[in-house]
């Protein structure tokens, strides 16, 4: 009886075994992979749009104003006399200040 079921149900069981894996991949794609790709794309566009004079925060939490910028290096002015050099990728985000507040 076992041999008969294996011989007749062999073709349908392949789809039954592969189907859940395909479903898991689709769920992982829409819940994990796609949002991470969008986040990476917006971060890269923010890093490309940085310019001299922008106020930024580094990954370590340091606030500063960009005084010099190149393809991979950013020099931040922390106060009147202190300038620190960072890798461009270490910028967490740019700070936007409302026009009425300063």
Question: How would you sum up this structure, described in words?
Answer:
The protein is of the alpha+beta class and 102 residues long. It has 2 domains: 1-49; 51-94, SH3 type barrels (Roll). It is 46% helix and 25% strand. It is built from 1 helix and 5 strands, in the order αβββββ. Strands 4-3-2-1-5 form a 5-stranded antiparallel β-sheet, covered by helices on one side. A hairpin with a 4-residue loop joins strand 1 (55-58) and strand 2 (63-69). It is rod-shaped, with a radius of gyration of 26 Å. The relative contact order is 0.11. This is Sec translocon accessory complex subunit YajC. It holds the Pfam family YajC. It is a single-pass membrane protein.
Any key phrases for this structure?
single chain, alpha+beta, SH3 type barrels, 5-stranded antiparallel β-sheet, 5 strands, rod-shaped, protein transport, transmembrane helix, Preprotein_translocase_YajC, transport
Q: What's the helix and strand layout?
A:
Blueprint: H1 2-48, E1 55-58, E2 63-69, E3 73-77, E4 83-87, E5 91-94
Family: Belongs to the YajC family.
Subcellular location: Cell membrane
Protein name: Sec translocon accessory complex subunit YajC
**How many separate structural domains?**
2
As laid out across the biggest beta sheet, the strand order is: 4-3-2-1-5
Distance between the termini: 82 Å
Total DSSP helices: 1
Radius of gyration: 26 Å
Mean pLDDT: 86
What's the β-strand tally? 5
Show unreliable segments: none
Which of globular, elongated, flat, extended, rod-shaped describes the shape? rod-shaped
Give the ordered list of helices and strands.
Answer: HEEEEE
Quaternary:
single chain
Main location: membrane
Keywords: Cell membrane, Membrane, Protein transport, Translocation, Transmembrane, Transmembrane helix, Transport
Membrane topology: Single-pass membrane protein
Subcellular location: Cell membrane
